[in-house]
Amino acid sequence: MLPSFLDRKAKGKPFLQRPEIFASDVWDNEDSLASPTSSESSFDEDDVNRRITPFWPKYRSILRARGFCLETVKDVKKYYGQQSKAALGFGWDSPYYSRQSDFQDDDALCPDAGIPDNLFRGVRLSDSKRVVVKAVHFKSREYSVICELSRPPLSDDPMNHSIPVLDLFELADDDIAFIVMEEWSSQLVTNSGLCCLGLFLSSMRQCIEHIVFMHKHRITHLDISLRNLLTDYQGRCAYIDYELSRRFENSSKALVYNYRGTELPPECEKEGGIDPYKVDVWALAVLILRACKLTGFWVPELMHVIDPMLKEDPNRRPSAFTALQIFDKVTKSLGFHLQPVCTSPH
């Protein structure tokens, strides 16, 4: 039986609503979520960590010179023109697209109204691979963490399940940096559903393994949730959104204050600093529970993994590494030898 808190409602909306077909809501982190303050911070970081709104046309040629094209009106028309009107029930000229009526020039940039202003869809010119470009302050925590995760040696580690980053660059004169990521889907369950239990368990293992990897390098995610998890539909899952993430020095005691992520553990109700690693462990347990409910794959034995991670006292929660060990023991006892890609016949 799933814990009752999964059926509560937050901010007027039920948890685990099935994602929309365009799955753009994954990028929609609320501006009201306050960034945590770490015990190692020595200055006010609000300015460099706030969400920015770039004037995208200014950077269009720079991105093109680096091999990426921001999405234009022509691109969007072509994309939806290729969709079946019978399946979608509308075409480009329908009222659904009335918001695009102001664009008379096919070469004009066409921002997606369904994602925040600091994100822009596009393609890589060399192979038409779809990408998402994210603009951040070049001194932001997110840019620092992404740079570390997306460059050798960390990028070469098989435990690293961060969204693949195709390019990173900064323009210091504008206080801005750009992160060019592969475009994956937030719709973890397609209309036909996940193909098998083994693939689901493999996905959950990747979720735990990535947090083990981050904690090993003294990085905490601090906003682990289903909305920050993507899939490539080839057996791989990836984390996004490191806006709240923190990196701690070996000599520092890891604490965060005034934490306001998506999943709030009980200790957030108390005054003082809290352990960010145990915050991640709590949120990871909630992610697994929500994924079970969303997909319909409920394995009672997984509670041996989840229960300790949800202890009210953070000091009694296991580390992410211990949680992974328990997960591997449980899945092995069930006869699963997990693979990153499903090999079962269907």
From TrEMBL:
* Any one GO MF annotation of this record: protein kinase activity
* CDD domains noted in UniProt: PKc
Q: Which SMART domains match?
A: S_TKc
Residue stretches making up the Protein kinase domain: 82-346
Q: Which InterPro entries match?
A: Kinase-like_dom_sf, Prot_kinase_dom
Which superkingdom?
Eukaryota
Q: Show the PANTHER family listed in the entry.
A: PROTEIN KINASE DOMAIN-CONTAINING PROTEIN (PTHR24362:SF309), SERINE/THREONINE-PROTEIN KINASE NEK (PTHR24362)
Please report the name of this protein according to its UniProt entry.
Answer: Protein kinase domain-containing protein
